[in-house]
């Protein structure tokens, strides 16, 4: 798989009671389908993934998959702290028709996760077991964990790691 085009991180609409606004999800996806967007990133940071229950995530994932045009590629934010749960989420998304999983750097145990060897073990373990390709999500401002360029280069050799979304804000990292 090769990513080309624009994949916006979509927002998650809520009603006045704070519940997932199902009809608005459908409306939004149908409107985005009329554009030249290549696909959508569902449950990324902009989609308020960390505030959704597992049931709400699954409902949102199902709705977007149901209403997305067939030519749109779907990427799901599925990263959590444990390898096991991250793999479960990614594989559930695969069953719903998602094409790739955006996996953030786990960060709760920062002392361990700041070690490149631990970071690489986490992402390789997820990629080894995920049924869809993995995109690494590096956002050190929010996680407090930054993936060094050397670790990213080593991870890029994994056949199920598709790429990286680097939100570090450092232009030097991508040059």
TrEMBL record:
Pfam families reported for this sequence: DHDPS
The organism's place on the tree of life at top rank: Bacteria
SUPFAM superfamilies: Aldolase
InterPro entries: Aldolase_TIM (IPR013785), DapA-like (IPR002220)
Signal sequence coordinates: none
SMART domains: DHDPS
Keyword entries, A-Z: Lyase
Molecular functions per Gene Ontology: 4-hydroxy-tetrahydrodipicolinate synthase activity
PANTHER family the record matches: 4-HYDROXY-2-OXOGLUTARATE ALDOLASE, MITOCHONDRIAL (PTHR12128:SF66), DIHYDRODIPICOLINATE SYNTHASE (PTHR12128)
Protein family per UniProt: Belongs to the DapA family.
Name listed for the protein in its UniProt record: Dihydrodipicolinate synthase family protein
Species this chain originates from: Candidatus Acidiferrum panamense
Lineage per the UniProt record: Bacteria, Pseudomonadati, Acidobacteriota, Terriglobia, Candidatus Acidiferrales
